[in-house]
Write a structure and sequence with these properties.
Number of domains: 1
CATH class: Alpha Beta
CATH architecture: 4-Layer Sandwich
Radius of gyration: 18 Å
Structural class: alpha/beta
Shape: globular
Low-confidence stretches: none
CATH superfamily: Ribonuclease Z/Hydroxyacylglutathione hydrolase-like
Number of helices: 7
Strand order of the largest sheet: 1-2-5-6-7-8-9
Number of strands: 16
Strand content: 15-25%
Length: about 260
């Protein structure tokens, strides 16, 4: 999928055919009867950045997605050996399923936010995700405000809340924001990521407000359809909507729950 001449999305990636495997019993928050899931978001879109005859990926697909990745790369006139960098938004398996294999094939350097690296190396467990994945070394630890030598300067934005080290990327010269799992979009509507897969929802909203302050025409998402025009305006409208809803309903919800909460 073409976003700009130098930015494309890999299409056709879905869940593994055998479903997810789990490293440990599901956390209670994932086995409750409450599920926040839209089937339309079970399609995944790693981004491909073309830079001086080589490639960089933002995220690495689900397990078993290598055929889709390879077809997409070849359709752009490249080979997997042309992959030089893989930037990881966060450590959920749907974003890192083929990371180890891609590194083995290409020798690409792997970048991730410093706060996410312990989870990617399995030194810590994601509180909200027990799905199994294969770990690999992280070559470069990123922090908020770092700039990568891609797309004329690709700014790293630390956007915690979904996970501790979730990050977004901002290409000012391309007027493009890569938001990963910070927000979802389908059929003209925004949705927040599932609370059962997020570690700190209030912090996630703060991160969403943070990225909404940037100026961008295009919004690239890992789940859902990209927005290719006036994306910053639309995201700010959604943030304003969230604020209005919280102003209207949260006080009354808190009042209604207060006796139970006090008890």
């Amino acid at each position: 999928m073409l976003i700009t001449p130098r930015v494309h999305l890999i299409e056709g990636i879905t869940r593994p055919s055998g479903g997810w495997t789990y490293a440990r019993p599901n956390p209670e928050r994932l086995t409750s009867t409450f599920r926040f899931h839209h089937q339309r978001y079970s399609i995944y879109f790693p981004a491909v950045i073309i830079e001086n005859g080589s490639l960089a990926f933002f995220d690495a697909g689900t397990p078993e997605s290598m055929p889709c990745i390879e077809r997409s790369v070849e359709s752009l006139g490249f080979e997997l050996g042309d992959l030089k960098s893989i930037i990881i938004s966060h450590g959920h398996v749907d974003h890192i399923g083929e990371l180890k294999h891609l590194v083995e094939i290409s020798g690409a350097k792997v970048y991730a936010h410093d706060a996410e690296i312990p989870y990617l190396l399995k030194q810590k467990h994601q509180e909200c995700d027990a799905r199994e994945f294969e770990s690999t070394a992280i070559d470069v630890a990123l922090k908020d405000g770092d700039t990568l030598d891609l797309l004329g300067g690709l700014k790293v934005i630390h956007t915690p809340g979904h996970t501790a080290g979730h990050l977004a990327l901002y290409a000012e010269k391309q007027r493009t924001l890569f938001a990963a799992d910070l927000i979802r979009h389908s059929r003209g509507e925004f949705h927040l990521p599932p609370p059962e897969y997020s570690v700190d929802y209030p912090l996630l909203i703060e991160s969403l407000v943070k990225v909404s302050q940037y100026d961008f025409d295009k919004l690239v998402l890992y789940h859902g359809e990209p927005i290719l025009q006036d994306a910053d305006k639309r995201l700010r409208e959604f943030v304003a909507y969230l604020k209005a809803m919280s102003d209207i309903f949260l006080p009354s919800i808190k009042d209604a729950l207060a006796p139970e909460m006090e008890g």
